[in-house]
Write a structure and sequence with these properties.
alpha/beta, Rossmann fold, 7-stranded mixed sheet, two-stranded antiparallel ribbon, 23% strand, disordered N terminus
Amino acid sequence: MAGNDARGRTPLSLVGQDPDLLFYTRQATAVGGPVLVLGAANGRVAWTLARAGLSVLGVDSSERMVQAAEEMRGAESLEVSGRARLLHADLRSLRLDERFRVVLAPHHALGLMTTIADLEAMLATVRHHLEPDGLFVYDVLNPRAEPPPPGNEEDEPGAAVAPRRPVFTFHLRERKRADAPSGIHRLKFKPFSSEELETAMTASGLTPRERYGTFEGKPFEPSDAHHIGVVDG
């Protein structure tokens, strides 16, 4: 199992990883598996954790993303491959008999929720699958203090929104580019504030513990582009 050594140093196997992968690996290995990854996308986080020695179940609501993650299996050793499972399912209604020490929602997965009911349903999924005293970790886009420059709203995924935006009105917009191959879509994330999200967490029986503005551990500030949270089950 990978993790920091007694002196806080990072093992060579993790050196050079993307900051988000390193962050999630450290969080998960500090607690231990099994790990549930909600919104596994193409498997970046799930496969990284499997390589770190953890048992992982990656779930995504996109069948295409699950297929992409499965395509990575052939490049892994039998030992690593045996530690990772992938499942296509709705993150709002997933109810397994298994419980997990760690639940992760990377890749702005919470930002896919389009209504209060959707958000509460996904957080109920988190709560249902967490073992007692388990850990929930996530990252989402954060509303900027200032609106984006004119002309950027249609071109930048996760473009900022004005702070006066009503509570819980975030949404995901999906549109197809005219020059894109058939079936390829761009996803438009609408971020929401840390206060909005933490209110929903508390209502769902989860206890927010730590907030960061970067995967390197910088304390969160309202102007940060990301809100990265560590939550007790």
